Amino acid sequence: MPQTPLQVFPVQAPVQTAPFALLDTLQEAMRANDIALRDGDILAVSSKYVAISEGRIVEISTIEPSDKARELAKRYNMDARIAELVVREADHIFGGIPMGYLLTWRSGIIAPNAGLDRSNIPDGKAVLLSTDPYQSARQIRDEIKARLGKAIGVILTDSWLVPGRIGTTGVALASAGFEPVQDERGKEDLFGNPMVVTQKGVADSLSVCAQMVMGERDEATPIAIIRGADVQMTDTPISQDDVSIPWELCIYVESLTLGLLPDGAPHESLSAKLGKRDIAGM
Questions:
Q1: Which residues lie closer than 8 Å to 149 by C-beta, 6 or more apart?
Q2: Mean pLDDT across 144-158
Q3: Residue 174's beta-bridge partner residues?
Q4: Using CA atoms, how far apart are residues 141 and 42, in angstroms rounded to an integer?
Q5: pTM of the full structure
Q6: Dist. CA 50–CA 9, nearest whole Å
Q7: Residue 172: which domain range?
Q8: What is the pLDDT of residue 242?
Q9: Using one digit for the tens of pLDDT, what is the confidence trace for 189-231?
Q10: Are residues 10 and 106 in the same domain?
């Protein structure tokens, strides 16, 4: 049977730099873009847009670094105030690179600097992730249903770096209203072989679709509506535990720590090597 075509509609909205009424803005933006939500749609909203609406904006100049932050800043060549924000926000800090970035675990995602964002915000400010992204997604979904009577799914989209790849891609920081993971284990493939470990990251895949029309720079498109997605709608609250494994079980983390081969450990950072090369070429 032919599947319904998957459609993704970009929705432009006003640039925001201070707390604002998110649901009012969403409704106004959809009217201005001449599109309305339907039952079964997935509403993708930039996680930063949501965080700004919640007042998760900080003046960097007001941050007082702790001793731990100063130590990290010195080791990884970063602003001590940024290091302090990462210390406060991260659930866990793995380490860092001397280009001013710490690798962290935050809200079930491995990401640089605990998701702290300084792009598309006035200079001197930074935007932090929502305190509880899954609660934020649930609130958006519930209020849309109360206001418009539509049963939809919600994704808070973000972008991240895939290990070993150039460029960012979409990731679902949080979701609500639909099953974010589709379990394929026990089902048969084309040749009748049972699937053993495959579970499809539905929310993350849809986030990639949304990011393709939302952009990352000056597009002013923090919203997208995804229509025709083959998802299982649900009223059951979604949490981090439904989509994330403990970081200790992550193949990347364990392989690069406990599972690291003796001859696989770098003896010097790439940035240090590049620095020596630049000096040698002068």
A1: none
A2: 97
A3: 156
A4: 10
A5: 0.88
A6: 19
A7: 1-47+133-260
A8: 92
A9: 666 676 655 678 899 999 999 999 997 666 689 999 999 998 9
A10: no
